[in-house]
Design a protein that fits this description.
The protein is of the alpha/beta class. It is 42% helix and 15% strand.
């Protein structure tokens, strides 16, 4: 049993390392756009994408072949040193902690571009021990390199054990920025019978009850409507609760069918409604979808402002358009308005739309 003082939680884990963050900043991150820094064509596009996407993430793990790992790492260093990211966050996904590349990832990236990186995404996190390892190592590397801003850590839920240990993962370090759902690896680890990367499955459904004849006997042979269900609803909901409890942020992960933009938008919207703040983008078309879905609509912002205005000091209840609004409604509406204000600060088009809203009395 650990007897570590709670006061030690916010003390640096290495002499000379920066003070840990007391609160994770709520920076807009509707789309985390993945790119391969070892791919020259992709790397060349990075400077032009700054400002058009909330997060640019240099990927070193899955989708990078073993023989290209060092090239990708060197490419990421070059990009980090040469590109001014301005309002766009700069993240990386390192290799898994059991891989032969991860130690070189960290010992190379932190000294070279640790002052430019915002978040380090750690794949296949199993429990708090994985975060503790990364936490201590980052502190040592920050101290040695003279980094003054602590790097944040983002964990991917890709194993059943990781989901089971979700609370301790979220609470493992002040560096914890958020969690992402990794549906493909998680499906494999759970032995789920799907080969899709995110999204639903036509076999996961509920069926309408059969109609009954005049004698009350069910007509099992009749036509019955089916409703496709979301394979990931439980995991996303659990992730959102754990993140909210610990003051960090939940994200939907990848949606693999790039061409199915309709289903991608639906899946992203489900995650948004449940409380996620963003999703991964594997192709530029998904950036547009994420920016749209994870930004409150003009109608929602207008309604939220109207409720807040009508409620005055936030106590009691009022009737608006035949619906009761009370203090709980105000809390919901303040979440929507706060997000709109954060996004308006970095997105001129959204700012124009939100500024044009006129609230009716």
């Amino acid at each position: 049993m650990s007897h570590k003082s709670a006061k030690d939680f916010f003390r640096p884990l290495a002499v000379g390392a920066p003070e840990p963050l007391r609160e994770i900043p709520a920076r807009p991150s509707r789309a985390i756009h993945f790119f391969d820094p070892g791919n020259e064509k992709m790397a060349a596009k990075v400077p032009d994408m700054v400002g058009s996407v909330d997060v640019l993430l240099g990927n070193l793990e899955d989708a990078v072949k073993a023989e290209n790992k060092e090239t990708a790492r060197a490419g990421l260093v070059k990009i980090g040193q040469s590109v001014d990211f301005g309002p766009t966050q700069f993240w990386t996904r390192i290799n898994s902690l059991d891989s032969p590349w991860v130690l070189d990832d960290l010992t190379t990236l932190v000294p070279a571009i640790g002052d430019k990186l915002d978040v380090i995404m750690v794949p296949k996190v199993q429990g708090a021990e994985d975060i503790h390892y990364v936490d201590r190592l980052l502190a040592q590397l920050e101290a040695k390199a003279g980094i003054t801003k602590p790097l944040q850590v983002h964990a991917i839920l890709e194993t059943a054990r990781g989901v089971a240990n979700i609370e301790e993962i979220c609470a493992a370090s002040p560096r914890m920025q958020g969690l992402s759902l990794g549906p493909a690896d998680l499906a494999a680890d759970r032995r789920m019978k799907t080969t899709r990367v995110g999204g639903g499955h036509p076999g996961y459904l509920v069926r309408q009850d059969p109609e009954r004849g005049e004698d009350g006997v069910p007509l099992y042979e009749g036509q019955r409507t089916t409703y496709q269900q979301d394979l990931w609803h439980y995991t996303i909901a659990r992730m959102v609760d754990a993140c909210a409890t610990h003051g960090i942020f939940p994200y939907y992960g990848p949606f693999g069918d790039i061409k199915d933009t309709v289903a991608c938008e639906d899946q992203f919207r489900n995650a948004f409604l449940l409380g996620c703040v963003g999703a991964w983008s594997l192709h530029p078309v998904q950036i547009k979808i994420a920016n749209k879905v994870f930004s409150p609509s003009v109608e929602d912002v207008k309604h939220a402002r109207r409720v807040i205005a009508a409620m005055g000091d936030g106590t009691g209840a009022v009737m608006l358009d035949g619906k009761m609004e009370d203090d709980a409604s105000v809390k919901q509406c303040k979440v929507m308005v706060a997000l709109a204000e954060e996004l308006a600060a970095i997105d001129p088009e959204l700012k124009e739309q939100y500024d044009a809203i006129e609230v009716d009395a």
